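Researcher: Here's the sequence for the chain we discussed earlier.
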Amino acid sequence: NGLPQGGVIDLSGQSFGSNGILVILSTGNGYSVDPNATQLVDVTDGNLEDQSHTFFLINATVAPTSNDDIDANDDGTPELDGVFGTWTIYDSISLVDDDNVASNDEFAYGAVIFAEQDIIPRLKRPVTSTVIATSTQYDYAARIGNSTGQAVSDDENVSDWIGADIVGRTDTTLSFFFSSNSDRVTPGSFAGSELNHIGGPNPGPTASLDNSKLASVSIYPNPARGSIVVKSLDVDVNSYELYNMLGAQIMKGDTVVNRSIDVSGLSSGMYLLKVNAAQGSTTRRLVIN
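Model: Thanks. This is the structure I predict for it:
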């Protein structure tokens, strides 16, 4: 519509924080950010006016601008003979809404696209992209753990991306949660999880991919209040580490199978319990009520 939609964030010369993470924010965002992350504030040169977005992480020999048109003929496929063809693209993701106007198309250019299901017949996109139909507009997308692929499924152990509808924010509360409705979260096992890892590690899978025996490790009760017990049928657990969602270790201990772990001193919220065994390590999400 003639606006400099989106924007260009120049990362030239920037550095990651001591924890390896860089966070881009706007003034008044309300997030509590890990102090070990580098924070950039109000660095975009454009506006996010519409709720359909594609985000690219690129390297370019010529600095791009917000007025660059990567899809001049509006067919959903960027032209390789234009500015797009000069970019080295490291990653891309799209979130697409449905404006409820039957004549309107939506455009998305990410390798992975979370799109409201009603817009998909009118979605213009590269044919190589992976499209995930969502029952509502997703507000959030992130890689799971340190993944680099483009797989998306409802199994968090093989999915590279998580997408979610964010709920829980009010005028007086800045607590953010993924929707408790698993139909509004992909993978659905993240439903109800608290989003409080800004500037810290992204959510990770609950089990090691290379050792199915670790899948036998379980925690109960979960959600918990005063104590938890770690159980395992197939592996010998020798130690545990408990992390908050900012990645800080807050507890650790030795052999834990069938032994109670006191968590009564923890604040309510989401934690990550890493269980170590001779066969490897696995991580479980733990909710404290």
